[in-house]
Amino acid sequence: MPQTFDTLASLMAHGFDTVIDVRSPAEFAEDHIPGAINLPALSNDQRAEVGTIYKQVSAFDARKVGAALVARNVAGHVEGPLAEYDGAWRPLVYCWRGGQRSGSFASILQQIGWRADTIKGGYQTYRRLVHDAMYIDPVPHRLVLLDGYTGTAKTALLHLLAERGVQVIDLEGLAAHRGSLLGGLAGGQPAQKGFESQLAQALAGLDPNKITVVEAESSKVGQIVLPKQIWASMSAAPRIEVKAPRAARAAFLREAYADIIANPAVLRKRLQPLRNLRGHAVVDGWEALLQAGDFTALATGLMAEHYDAAYDRSRKVNDRTWLGEVHAETLDAAGRARAADDLARLIAAL
Predict the structure, then answer these.
(1) For tag attachment on the chain, is the N or C end more exposed, with fewer CB atoms within 10 Å?
(2) Beta strand pairing call for 37-38 and 117-118
């Protein structure tokens, strides 16, 4: 019988040895159950082919063609990635709706002797549970936001806090973006659904009775939109501010954005949208510093003429509860370690 999961926690604690996503590679790339492996019952092209036959010919012909393709594909998986598993292996198989693809795949595995099962409702069951956690159910965790001007090493400090036993969630890491105009990373961002899966998994692994520290963000991280309940919880959360001299922040930004600095053409392109906001003269000045290779001065100019002003405006508009502040005179490795120690002591006292 297909396995029924009523909560995200019960699905995450499924107890099977391996979760197999038999959807197409394109479906898997957009989103999947964390930890699942992709052994497609149909490739991207095959899925499109069967869908066309279903619409243009008949459901019977589509099933007949699909069955032959699935059988050949499963045979390849059994001879390949699954060849080394012994008879005690217990796989949990799912497709889009928990229908024919996963049913056919699991049936073949069962005939071999493996104790395979499927998920009732397939991926759609999992997606509904994630959606409820992100958009319907209030977040039960006690969030505290790590706030401060651009360049105060907040993301780096999050990771240092985790090393000191503090619960954290790195939204920028999950979104594969540093959360600013210049913050794009090589490889691009995950799909929105994929981000929500990673975030739901991260929250599920944390104790809701303990403080969880999250970096203060806008409602979007790059192109990723923070889900409704997460944003609501963050908007109401108290904050700790990290303060550092602008010179220390500029030095840190030069280190943190080394990948962007290494490609001046990309950096120049990313500066162009600011012409309408800050004016041509200001952006021309930044480009002159870029041309001269004076990246520390460029970082200082971006903070003084763009980022700090935007941060100051947001502080005036939004009511915020402050729990304290930490001062870092430097933001090199030693300075970050001292700031993380101070933050950890402050959080422990809350």
Answers:
(1) N
(2) unpaired
